Amino acid sequence: MAKNDTLKTASVLAFERKLDPSDALFSAGSWQDKAQHSQWPGLPVREKSVRGTISNRLKAKDQDPAKLDAAIENPNLQTVDVAALPHDADTLAVHFTLRVLAGAGNPSACNNADYQAKLKQTVSGYVSNHGFSELAHRYACNLANGRFLWRNRLKADEIEVIVSQTKGGAVEKQWTFNALDHSTRDFEGTDATRELGDVIASALAGEHFLLLDVVALARIGAGQEVFPSQELILDRTRGDKSKTLYHIGDDMNAAIHSQKLGNALRTIDTWYPMPEDAADLGPIAVEPYGSVTTQGAAYRQPKQKVDFYNLLDNWLLKDEVPSTENQHFVMATLIRGGVFGDAG
Q1: Exposed end of the chain (fewer CB within 10 Å): N or C?
Q2: Do 252 and 339 lie in a common domain?
Q3: How far apart are CA 271 and CA 322, in angstroms?
C-alpha cells in the first residue's frame, strides 16, 4: 500500500501496562512444611555494620605514594541492609499477585482520532492473524521458570512455583511447576505452560478478567542471605548506609519491586538482531530500544530500523508490515505500556 502522507503520529500517545504485578513479599520456613507457606512469618530487613577494606580502583596518577598507601591501609567502615533466612528455616517464599488486563493496543490517551483509528485497525489485524498466544505463552514460561526470583534463583537447589487463578478470593485453577525444569533461555514450554498461556491470552483478548496469585518456594539453605530489591538512593545526605534494601511495613518485611517483577515477566524478546561479535545473550526484556542497563547496551538501535518507534511508524504511517517476529515485539511493547507520543 502507498504511504499515507496525511497521517501523523499523535503528539499525545500513552498506553497503560496490561501485565500489572504487585510487589512481592518475602517469608521464610522449612521445605518440609511448604504446604503451610501461607502461614510463614515475614522476612525482615536488618542493618549490619562491617569493617571492610578499600578495594575500589584508585587514581594513582600524580598521587603522593605516601598518601595513597595511607588511603588503602585505612579500614572501609560501612553500614548496609541485609536479609537472610533464619537458621531454623531453609526455604524462601516469594509471593505476589498479577493482574492481566484487556485492551492491549488501546491507548489510554491519544489526541489524534485518525491515528487512533489506524492503530485500532492495525492491532485488530495482528490479533486476527496471530492472537496473543505466542506472547502469553512466553509470559507463562517466565512464571514457570521463576525468572522473577532474579539472584535468588541462582542460589536454590529446589524451586516450586505455584500459580493460582483466583476469583472472588477463591482458587478456580492452579498450576505447580518445578522451576529448574524450565529453561530461562528458551520458551519451548510444556502442556502446563501452554494451558496457563491460553488463560493469559484470553484475558489479554478481553474474554475474561484474570488475577493470578503466584508463590515461589526456593530451597536456599538455613541462614543463607537472600536478595530483595535494592533501593536507588539519589540523595546520599539522607543517611550513611551504603546499601538500602526495599521493605514494606513497620516490620521491615523484605520485598521485590513490582517494576522488577514486570521486567522479568516481559523478558521475552528473542527477536532482536544479534550482534555478530556477541555470544548468545538469550531473551532480553521488551523495551523500545532493547536496552539492557546491566550490560550498558541497547540491541534495537534506531539506525538499524528495528526499534519500537521505527517499526510502529512504518507499520502505521507507511503501511510497511514488519516481520511476524517484530509484530510480536511491537505488541509486547504496547502491553508493557508507556508514553510514546511525538511531542516536541
Answers
A1: C
A2: no
A3: 12
Nearest to 248 by CA among 28, 27, 48: 27
| CA distances from residue 32 to 26, 40, 149, 153 in whole angstroms, order as listed | 18, 12, 21, 19
- The answer to whether residue 1 is domain-embedded is no
From 265, 294, 316, the end of a domain falls on 265
In a domain, 314, yes or no: yes
* Amino acid 186: pLDDT: 92
The residue ranges of the chain whose pLDDT is under 70 are 1-5, 56, 58-73, 235-239, 277-279, 343-344
Residue type, 251: D
CB 261 within 8 A of CB 50: no
* Final residue before a domain boundary, out of 217, 235, 265: 265
Name residues whose C-beta falls within 8 Å of residue 44's C-beta, 6 or more positions apart in sequence. Answer: 83, 247, 251, 252, 253, 254
Structural domain containing residue 193: 17-52+76-265
Give Cα 201 to chain centroid, integer Å.
18
| Amino acid of residue 89 | A
Those residues whose C-beta lies under 8 Å from the C-beta of residue 231, and which sit 6 or more positions away, are 244, 245, 246
206 and 238 inside one domain: yes
Query: At 225, which amino acid appears?
Result: E
- For residue 199, the one-letter residue type is V
> What's the N-to-C CA distance of the chain in angstroms?
29
User: d(Cα 163, Cα 89) in Å, to the nearest integer?
Assistant: 23
Q: Are residues 255 and 344 in the same domain?
A: no
The radius of gyration of the chain's CA atoms, rounded to the nearest angstrom, is 23
User: Within this chain, do residues 134 and 207 fall inside the same structural domain, yes or no?
Assistant: yes
**Cα gap 130→223, rounded to integer Å:** 48
For 182-194, the pLDDT digits (tens) are: 999 999 999 999 9
285 and 211: one domain? no
Residue 82 backbone zone (phi > 0: left; psi -120 to 50: alpha; other: beta)? beta
